[in-house]
Amino acid sequence: MLSLTQLKDDLVTANRVLAHHHVVDSFGHVSVRNPENPKHFFLSRARAPNCVEAGDITEFTFDGQIVGHNPGKPYSERFIHGSIYEARPDVMAVVHNHSPNVVPFTVQTKKKMRPIMHMCAPIGTDIPTWDIAHKFGTTNLLVTSMEMGRDLAQSLGNRTVALMRGHGSVVVAKSLREVVFTSIYMEINADMLIKAYALGDGDIQPMSEGEVDANAGGRAGFTLERGWENWCKITERPYYSLDWNMGPGFSKTDK
Ligand code: MN
Predict the structure, then answer these.
(1) CA of 94 to the centre of ligand 1 (A)
(2) How far is the CA of 7 from the centre of ligand 1 (A)?
(3) Is the pTM of this model over 0.85?
(4) Distances in whole angstroms, Cα of residue 139 to Cα of each of 27, 80, 96, 167
(5) I need a labelling partner for 31 at 20 to 30 A (CA). Which of 12, 13, 92, 106 fits?
(6) Strand 93-97 and strand 168-173: pairing?
(7) Candidates 59, 77, 178, 211; catalytic one
(8) pLDDT in tens, 139-154
(9) What domains sit in the chain, N to C, each tagged with a CATH number?
């Protein structure tokens, strides 16, 4: 287990890594549930992810109220995170992004987002598209209330990903490392999928449900650690190892 200080440090790292991979740009955000108080979560103040520092990390209640340390204006879309943590006790981390290759699939009704390469299996075969207009009519498309957040969380259901029409997506996972991994590989999958669709007449062969299930166990432990260690190095952030079986050369700063 990481200490709370290390977890918040990892949240800074997650912001930098997602920015490096263009999952987020000046906008989009990543949060982690407080393991010591599951009704609270940590999220940066409203700042570009690549600029986020430890002092920006803020603790929130599900309904977006700041707890304690208040470093400045919160994200107006923080309700996305609180609503999902409220609905999904199994979720420990959430990413909201405008991932550029994913957005085309939020407005596409025929050529669906599907995993086409094994590293992208975590996005799953059943990916819904939430349309804010269905319940809230004409808006600026931003999720700025718990009512909107809860509607989005309902559309997500027990899945890993929900697309948001004309906006972006939400990605959830059981850990911060996993949510970063899935978000990066969803962007890579979307880029490859657009190319696959462009190559032919629109027919593609995505991963089957069985193949996705067969990959589910493969992204625990070692796979996530291997990605996370590399991404820490790329972004020049400290790496806190969570795995005892990584082999020589891996630091074990956490037991
Ligand atoms: Mn947004």
Answers:
(1) 13
(2) 24
(3) yes
(4) 19, 16, 18, 12
(5) 106
(6) antiparallel
(7) 77
(8) 999 999 999 999 999 9
(9) 4-235 (3.40.225.10)
